[in-house]
Amino acid sequence: TYTYTGKVITPAITVKGSNGKAIAKSNYTVTYAKGRKNVGKYKVTVTFKGNYKGAKAFTFKINPVATTVNKLVAGEKSLKVTFAKKTKQVTGYEVQYATNKNFKSAKTQNVKSYKTTSVTLKKLTAKKTYFVRVRTYKTVGKTRYYSPWSKASFKKTK
Asked: CB-based burial of residue 103 (10 Å sphere; 0-12 exposed, 13-18 middle, 19+ buried)?
């Protein structure tokens, strides 16, 4: 798994035999899928030659770039979450919140546009501390690719 950089990503390949030792590069060729720049899943094929026979295909993923929670503003039974805007290879954001730092029984709110950089979490309990984190996602076809979660921030509601 890699993170979107805007550049073509070419994973390093090491081929090992059944004995665990590396096989010389002269005994195989590596073919990469076209593109490998945008968020999505890509295929790598290793084709053996010489003393070896067969081929093996692998896939790797490119995930969107992560974002961070910039600000938490406490309201009456609510929290306004502001996060950093990401424009390249991002469809939207997921904001997750919970009353514990382990995010057990956490609730998630979806932000469907990458242009939106804040969301207000409503119907929360008054005078209770909430932990909040955010991640980006990119939809490619019917598959969603997610960035890692941001560092958790916390704030007490009014």
From this structure: middle
Residues pairing with 72 in the sheet: 81
Query: Which residues is 101 bridged to in the sheet?
Result: none
- Give Rg (Cα) of the chain: 22
- Identify the CA nearest to 73 among candidates 65, 59, 83: 83
Residue 112, sorted as left (phi over 0), alpha (psi -120 to 50) or beta, turns out to be alpha
At position 149, the amino acid (one-letter code) is W
Q: Which of 112, 79, 115 is nearest to 98 (CA)?
A: 79
Report the C-alpha gap between 77 and 98 in whole angstroms.
Answer: 14
Nearest to 37 by CA among 57, 16, 7, 1: 7
The distance of Cα 129 from the centroid of its chain, to the nearest Å, equals 27
Give the C-alpha separation, 54 to 52, whole Å.
7
Across the chain, what does the average pLDDT equal? 95
Which DSSP category does 114 fall into? T
Burial group, residue 146, by CB count within 10 angstroms (0-12, 13-18, 19+): middle
pLDDT digits (tens, 9 = 90+) for 61-79: 999 999 999 999 999 999 9
